[in-house]
Structure formats: C-alpha cells, structure tokens
Design goal:
This protein has 16 helices and five strands. By secondary structure, it is of the alpha/beta class. It has three domains: about 130 residues, P-loop containing nucleotide triphosphate hydrolases (Rossmann fold); about 60 residues, Orthogonal Bundle (Helicase, Ruva Protein, domain 3), CATH 1.10.8; about 120 residues, Zinc Finger, Delta Prime, domain 3 (Up-down Bundle). It has a five-stranded parallel sheet with strand order 2-3-4-1-5, sandwiched between helices. It is elongated, with a radius of gyration of 25 Å.
C-alpha cells in the first residue's frame, strides 16, 4: 500500500502514520523506518522498500519531503533534469513495489496535481491513497467543528461553546488542541467539559484574555479593559502574573511593529519570533493601533510598575488599576 500525505497540517498526518505503525503490533520498532527525503537516493529508497518484514506481515517506510524536494526549481526557474528523472523512475517503480511494504510519502507542502508520483499513486486504485491535510480555518467555523468532531472521536463530551472557545483561544494548532482536550477530559472526569473548565485549566485562555485586554487598551476602551482585568483576578490570577503577561504582550508588539516597518510579512515575522502565525497575525493587527514611540513609552511605564510593586511602593492591585488607566490614555 502506498500513501501520499501532503499539506501543512502536521497533526492529522502524524495521527495517520501512528495508526499505520500500530498495525505492525509488537514488531513495530523492527519493521518501521523514517527516511529524510531531502538527501535520499534512489538506491537507498529501493533498499528500504524491497527489504521483507521481520517476522511480520508488513514493513512501514515513511519518507519525509522527498517529493517536495524533487518539485523545487533551480536558480534558472526550471526543475532540474535529475529531479524529473527521479520522479519518473519512482512513478514507474511504485506499481512493482512488494505488497508487504507500506510506503508513506509525508510531505510538508501541497504537491502539484501534475506530479507524476501523485498520478501514479492515484492510478493504483485500492493500493494507493492521496490525502491532502489542510489546517481548518478559524473564520469559517471549520476549526470549532474540527474540535467538536475530534472530541467526539476521543469520547469526550463538550458543553455548548467549548469547541468555539478552544478554537478561539488556541487557534489552528491541532496538536495543542488535542493535548488540551486530554487535560480537560482528565479534569472533568465523567461530566462534560464546560467553558469554566477551559478558563481555569487552559493557559491559552488566560493569554487570550490578556490579548483582549491589550486590544481594548489599544482601542481606548477602558471599561472593557477593567472588566477583563476583574475577570482574571476573579479566576485567581496573581497581580504579578498579570503584569508579566501584559509586559510579554507589549514586548511582542514592539518586535512585531519593528519587523512590520522593515517590510517583513506574516510568515517571516512568525518564524523570526518563533510564534505560530495565528497569534502573530493578531499581534500585527494590534500593533497598528500604536506608533513605535507609544509602544516604547508603554514599555517603560510597565517596567516602572513592576519596580513599584516589587519594592512595595504601590500595592499590586492598585498599581495594575492605575496602569490600565494610563495605558488607555497613551497618545
């Protein structure tokens, strides 16, 4: 059986590969291999695919980003002849591969529909599968539907609004959503997970509240900022924790604003800051509310508040209240 799993959504692909590996049973470690396609030769691929399984029925061979590499164009804008030859050879080889081999092409990017290997796998009928894995889009409600469906598959019950909350707080990082569902299910036990559980147990919910408060400050909506601050206090958040998270968010905004002024795009900024594109995009929208000078003055004021609290000059909650009022008035 030959599989082509392609697209940027890694979690779904890893689950499929884990399920294939589970079919190998106790001999999985002996009969499974992962190959780096970025430097893989024909001879090495042929060797691993033609090796018979050890005391089992199947051998799993996972090849990562081979087709992505072979689709790349050279400096002249054309696909190298060696890459074309490799693809043609591979398309001819696949129908002759031993049926005891489960071959998976795990590609981090979407493969062209014209790719000869993709076409060859599609022609194999029941012996081949091509699956595109794309991250669900938050704005179309796809992500919340994915959360609800994934929870049902795990036997986890959700109260209304929980799927939407997790989708909003975490964004399109399916692996983290899966991890948070596991944690919330353990906490809730036999009962359904509620939105209060999410706010209590999910750190991303607290970060989202901080983001919303900073967003309210940027839009000069002081009452909304105070309401969000009160909510986080009622949930038991320590004043110094809240201040630390506010400082972190404004530090990100300063960096994002600087990179935006340099002409960097979303993906470049996310990669440089080692952030997921989802919170990076939100930060870019937020940074537009401020000038670089305003952000620097805010950051200096945050540091002054930190010193005032730690030296006992101001009581922590009073210091935060004064800070919120001042930040909403920054000109």
């Amino acid at each position: 059986m030959i599989y082509l799993f392609h697209g940027e959504e890694e979690f779904g692909k890893s689950e499929r590969i884990a399920a294939l590996k589970a079919k190998l049973g106790d001999l999985a470690e002996m009969n499974a291999v992962t190959l780096d396609g970025r430097g893989l030769s024909r001879e090495a691929l042929l060797h691993h695919c033609d090796v018979p399984p050890f005391l089992g029925d199947y051998r799993l061979v996972v090849v990562e980003d081979l087709l992505t590499r072979l689709e790349k164009k050279g400096p002249d804008g054309k696909q190298p002849a060696s890459s074309r030859d490799f693809l043609i050879w591979l398309a001819d080889y696949l129908p002759t591969m031993p049926e005891s081999t489960l071959l998976v092409f795990n590609e981090s990017k979407k493969i062209s529909a014209r790719n000869p290997v993709l076409k060859a796998i599609q022609k194999l009928g029941e012996r081949g599968e091509v699956a595109l894995f794309e991250t669900p889009k938050l704005k179309r409600g796809e992500l919340a539907r994915w959360v609800a469906q994934h929870a049902r598959g795990k036997g986890v019950r959700l109260k209304p609004g929980v799927a939407e909350a997790l989708a909003t707080f975490i964004g399109p990082n399916l692996r983290i959503i899966d991890s948070e569902l596991e944690k919330l299910a353990l906490y809730a036990g036999d009962r359904p997970i509620t939105q209060d559980d999410v706010r209590l147990m999910c750190p991303y919910a607290k970060e989202a509240s901080i983001f919303d408060m900073v967003d309210a400050l940027g839009n000069r909506r002081t009452p909304v900022a105070f309401r969000l601050l009160a909510q986080m206090r009622n949930q038991g958040a320590h004043p110094l924790y809240l201040l630390t998270m506010i400082v972190r968010q404004y530090r990100i905004l300063i960096q994002v604003k600087d990179y935006m002024n340099q002409g960097m795009n979303l993906n470049d900024i996310a990669s440089t800051l080692k952030l997921h594109p989802y919170p990076t995009e939100k930060a870019m929208r937020q940074a537009r509310h401020y000038t670089p000078d305003q952000l620097q003055r805010i950051y200096d004021r945050l540091l002054d508040t930190d010193v005032a609290i730690k030296t006992g000059k101001l009581e922590a909650n009073l210091a935060l209240d004064m800070l919120v009022v001042e930040l909403a008035r920054v000109q």
